[in-house]
Amino acid sequence: VQVVESGGGLVQSGGSLRLSCDASGFTFSHYYMSWVRQAPGKGLEWVSSIKTDGGTMYYADSVKGRFTISRDNARTTMTLHLNSLKPEDTALYYCAREIFWGFDYWGQGTQVTVSS
Question: Does position 26 have pLDDT exceeding 90, yes or no?
């Protein structure tokens, strides 16, 4: 099982980014997938999840209305569009495979830095 994030970078406040997660080694369409972030000096924060068929999405209140999650089961990829970015969105963003009691596989993360 492998999940690999990409797309992070440095952006000004109010800007946008698109993060991607490429998955392999498992039946992607059978699993909910999620994004989790960790800001400097803070704990892990769940950001968003998407159901197996991509028809239902869930968002943390802190990103609702600004971030959009999607998936392409044929390409085994997941995407997170980050809009109206704020300095408090600065974090290492992880792609994670979701299981009933949490997350079992994570990527190495991709850094998002938002300057004020």
Answer: yes
Amino acid present at 90? T
Which residues, 6+ apart, have CB-to-CB distance to 99 below 8 Å?
31
pLDDT tens for residues 28-50?
Answer: 999 999 999 999 999 999 999 99
Of 53, 27, 19, 18, the residue nearest 105 (C-alpha)? 27
CA distance 88 to 38: 11
What CA dihedral angle connects 61, 5, 17 and 86, to 10 degrees? Answer: 40
In the three-class reduction of DSSP (H, G, I as helix; E, B as strand; rest coil), residue 28 is classed as: helix
Q: Which candidate, 75, 67, 83, places its Cα nearest to that of 34?
A: 67
